[in-house]
TrEMBL record:
Location of region: Disordered: 296-326
Species this chain originates from: Pseudothioclava arenosa
Key words, A-Z: DNA damage, DNA repair, DNA replication, DNA-binding, DNA-directed DNA polymerase, Exonuclease, Hydrolase, Nuclease, Nucleotidyltransferase, Transferase
GO biological process terms on file: DNA-templated DNA replication; double-strand break repair
Identification of the protein by name: DNA polymerase I
Catalytic activity: DNA(n) + a 2'-deoxyribonucleoside 5'-triphosphate = DNA(n+1) + diphosphate
EC number of this enzyme: 2.7.7.7
Length: 939
């Protein structure tokens, strides 16, 4: 069918679908091989729902899913900081991206992407073509950047909110009609995409200005007429930056497509092809729905290896009671609660879970507690459910049938603290902190998330829903069914108690069943020691650290932000002096023209737009070149960009994370976040504060001790190199550590035959780069870029390194071979890290090998600091001190003035002896210590 008048094109924003599915759904892995498929499952369900909608006569005649091809587009050539602050794609999402393309084709839908352009540009071009051909267009997305296309037969549809977006809805959001959206965006900027815009001007102000002056060009031409001095100055001084921002937000409606609208004609899925794909993905429920729709028999489930050939985690769950939410009990009075607690005392265990108003444990209100003693026998104790309306005193009236919270907690406290009753939870650290804020210290505990992590790290996620589906073949009630999503989302206290009971009691029921399935497997998988000595006892330690928080002086952060702003301004002046002309420092295009056309810098390359590339790697090469003027300019721009990132990402953002009640920052540590055992810090991430530059290190000045207190930092010295020397049995390296010799200078002496005394610092830096690079499996290409030397020379360094230290090559080869044979690697403490991709082919093979080589080293370092943290509370119990933070190989404490040395002595002894008695290292661990009012002084 040729596209023309009367045709209706549906354009699905594939990238938005994928990320929405990934973040909305719990982790899911394919049982047969552990491949992450959660985002693919959500993507397929959304596609199927879209195809099954009854549009009547208004349905699509043509349809396509549009994807982003890669991260680099022509906008990066215009402005190399474009989207520079976006996080790396999650590792478990990366392998799912090509599967979503396969899924689209399996649904018999056109799947389109184009190198150098964003999906939005392709959508814009297709929308223009369809409109010009007399057809209509529906863009299935909620992306605000696409709203500039609305009108003239083009509309949007937010599938998650079931909401049409036309010109009126666009004007409601931006304050202007669709044709002026790019003007507003150019002024307001976008922190997500790192579009600079006009500092201090938001969407509302931008809309007022555009409505007053008509369009952006007119506004900038008449900026002198603006009455507000600061606003007038901004528009005049930042005019080039604003114009650049407009180019960045304007979608390219002339993208060079290699297909036509006719190629997007709607076609019915081929049942066999679609069901075969869904079946291979092991999406049982969707496969059945598709089969029912086509009146076909679903294909047989993929063959999975017999139990004797499978890992124990793949064994089917034992037969047990069915999940029947209607049988769950609402516990509304003290007598009923006492009967439940009596059963817990008799049984010796109790699965427990809390429901709250927020994921922030430091500010969340307790809403209810769920309990389970036997599979299928679960109850929910509502404590803080409200009717939603306001009472006479301005608060929310409680729903009827709830115990007073104080009475309920008084009955729960003896059981939750009883050493004879095991409390079982999923992600127990959260519930521990909720109860701790109410004066209850839960102990002893078991945690199903950590049981799974100890046994199956690297195979799949450890969230409750994913574990329930994998091990119990049961999908719990989704939380969105109760609280909704988006602007209409409510907090759990507004949920009706009957509905809350079915949801919350099921969580406790699932948790107990997972515990019964996991606990016997610990010994068979040789994970008992790791779980009992590191994972489980770390829960209360981290909970106490997180609740303590670290004091932050926001005035210091504010001063730093101002200082950074002034330094940026000073650098801008200096940059323009070196350049010999004024230009927009944030404009890669203008910078490239000056560097390569005016100054004659070498090594330049133009992108598709004709603009010179000025990424960090390009500028670093120029900064090291013999073209003095260009080198000076490149170095200054690199400095400016670094300061700009520090200001936006740290000194500005950290101020928003200070808890208003405590005046402290309370980060949250994920015990099961990394496969190797390293802790992950979030909200905010305090493990990612840069320390390689003076400005980056200064950020630590804002982390301060309380009145009469000092901060103490204790840091393992080169722990991963020490572990490498031990496991690879490197006599020269071990002896150097024992003798206190500079390990990097020693490596240089061994490799290059130069004496340690009077060594050239450049040679030592080369050896240091190789020392740390080898641990992470660095390639010749990677080392060449790090050292700014030819690749052949870098590869020669690596080759000579292996010649001088043959034990390292032997260790690497043996580790990879072990991983290929067994599907996992182990640390010297017995932590097992699975490597499901180790036998993969293609681009991912090298990454899998490097990860396998590094995991036992990084994992052992993680084991050591975990063991130290677990022992630390007892070691410093008699001191006026507490542990606040863990940052990689460093622990930070707060201690009363006068007790610093006592703390350092006690804590250092724990840290340096943390490996024993489990492992006797063949060389000592060394811990450096420091004291100060701030973290910067102490480190």
């Amino acid at each position: 069918m040729a596209f023309g008048k009367g045709c209706h094109l549906h354009l699905i924003d594939g990238s938005a679908y994928i990320f929405r599915a990934y973040h909305a759904l719990p982790p899911l892995t394919r049982k047969s091989d552990g491949l992450p498929v959660g985002a693919v499952a959500g993507f397929c369900n959304m596609l199927w729902s879209e195809l099954q909608k009854d549009h009547g006569a208004d349905g699509p005649t043509h349809i396509a899913v549009i994807f982003d091809k890669g991260s680099h587009t022509f906008r990066n050539d215009l402005y190399d900081l474009y989207k520079a602050n976006r996080d790396e794609m999650p590792e478990d999402l990366r392998p799912q991206m090509p599967l979503t393309r396969e899924a689209t084709l399996a649904f018999n839908i056109a799947c389109k992407e184009l190198e150098g352009y964003e999906a939005d540009d392709i959508i814009a071009t297709l929308a223009r073509q369809a409109r010009e051909a007399g057809g209509r267009v529906t863009i299935i997305s909620s992306d605000k950047d696409l709203m500039q296309l609305v009108g003239g037969g083009v509309e949007m549809f937010d599938a998650m909110k079931n909401r049409r977006i036309g010109p009126e809805e666009v004007e409601e959001k931006f304050g202007v009609r669709p044709e002026r959206v790019i003007d507003v965006q150019a002024l307001a900027g976008d922190s997500v995409d790192n579009i600079p815009g006009a500092p201090g001007i938001g969407v509302k102000t931008a809309a007022l200005l555009i409505n007053e002056f008509g369009d952006l060009d007119t506004l900038l031409a008449r900026a002198e007429e603006i009455k507000q001095p600061k606003r007038r100055q901004t528009l005049i001084e930042k005019a080039d930056q604003i114009r650049l921002s407009k180019r960045l937000v304007t979608l390219d409606q002339d993208t060079p497509l290699d297909f036509t609208l006719d190629d997007l004609e709607l076609r019915d899925p081929e049942p066999e092809v679609l069901m075969d794909f869904l079946n291979q993905m092991e999406f049982r429920a969707l496969t059945r729905r598709v089969a029912d729709h086509f009146g076909a028999a679903p294909p047989p489930a993929p063959e999975i290896a017999p139990v004797s050939e499978r890992a124990p985690e793949d064994a089917p769950a034992p037969e047990q009671a069915a999940f029947t939410p209607g049988d769950y009990v609402t516990i509304r009075d003290a007598d009923t609660l006492e009967r439940w607690l009596d059963q817990a005392r008799a049984r010796g265990w109790l699965a427990v879970d809390t429901e709250t108003t927020s994921l922030d444990e430091m500010q969340a209100d307790l809403v209810g507690v769920s309990l389970c003693i036997e599979p299928g026998q679960a109850g929910y104790l509502p404590l803080g459910h409200t009717a939603g309306g306001d009472d006479l005193f301005g608060g929310s009236a409680p729903q009827p049938g709830q115990m007073p919270m104080a009475q309920a907690l008084a009955l729960l406290k003896p059981v939750l603290e009883d050493p004879a009753i095991l409390k079982i939870g999923q992600n127990m650290k959260y519930d521990f902190k909720i109860f701790a804020r109410h004066g209850i210290r839960v102990a002893p505990i078991d945690d199903t998330m950590l049981l799974s992590y100890a046994m199956h790290a690297g195979l799949h996620g450890h969230g409750m829903d994913a574990l329930s589906d994998r091990h119990l073949n049961h999908q719990p009630i989704p939380i969105k069914e109760l609280i909704g999503s988006g602007k209409a989302q409510i907090t759990f206290d507004k949920v009706e108690i009957d509905k809350a009971t079915a949801y919350a009691a099921e969580d406790a029921d699932v948790t107990l069943r997972l515990w019964q399935a996991f606990k016997p497997q610990l010994h068979r998988l040789r994970a008992t020691t790791i779980y009992e000595t590191e994972e489980r006892p770390l829960v209360p330690v981290l909970a106490d650290m997180e609740m303590a928080g670290v004091r932050v002086d926001t005035s210091v952060l504010a001063r730093m932000s101002n200082a950074f702003a002034q330094k940026m301004a000073g650098l801008e002046d200096e940059i323009q002096q070196v350049a010999g002309q004024p230009f927009n420092v944030a404009s890669p295009k203008q910078l490239g023209e000056i560097l390569f056309e005016t100054m004659g810098a070498e090594g330049g390359k133009k992108g598709k737009t004709g603009a010179w590339g000025t990424g960090a790697d390009v500028l670093e090469d120029i900064a090291a070149s013999e073209n003095e003027q260009a080198a000076r300019l490149a170095g200054l721009v690199l400095d400016w960009r670094q300061i700009a990132k520090l200001k936006s990402t740290y000194t500005d953002a950290l101020q928003t994370h200070v808890n208003p009640e405590t005046g402290r920052v309370h980060t949250s540590y994920s015990i099961a976040g990394a496969n190797t055992g390293r802790l992950a810090s979030t909200d905010p991430n305090l493990q990612n504060i840069p320390v390689r530059s003076d400005e980056g290190r200064r950020i630590r000045e804002a982390f301060v001790a309380g009145p009469g207190m000092r901060l103490v930092s204790l840091d393992y010295s080169q722990i991963e190199l020490r572990i490498l020397a031990h496991v690879a049995n490197l006599p020269e390296m071990k002896q150097a550590f024992k003798d206190g010799i500079d390990i990097h200078a020693m490596t240089a002496a061994e490799m290059f035959g130069v004496p340690v005394e009077g060594m050239d610092p450049a040679i030592r830096r080369q050896a240091k780069a190789i020392n740390f690079g080898v641990i992470y499996g660095i390639s010749g290409f990677g080392l060449a870029r790090n050292l700014r030397i030819p690749r052949a020379e870098a590869q020669g360094f690596i080759d000579r390194y292996f010649e001088r230290f043959p034990g390292i090559r032997r260790y690497m080869d043996e580790t990879v071979n072990f991983a290929k044979e067994h599907g996992y690697v182990e640390t010297i403490f017995g932590r097992r890290i699975h490597t499901p991709e180790i036998n993969a082919k293609g681009p991912g093979a090298g990454f899998a090998k490097r990860a396998a080589i590094n995991a036992p080293i990084q994992g052992a370092a993680a084991d050591i600091i975990r063991r130290a943290m677990v022992r630390m509370p007892d070691a410093i119990a008699d001191l006026p001190a507490r542990m606040l933070l863990q940052v990689h190989d460093e622990l930070i404490f707060e201690v009363e003035e006068g007790a610093e040395e006592a703390l350092i002595g006690a804590a250092r002894a724990v840290m340096e002896g943390a490996a024993e008695p489990a492992v006797k290292l063949s060389l000592p661990l060394v811990v450096d210590g420091g004291v100060g009012h701030s973290w910067a002084e102490a480190h």
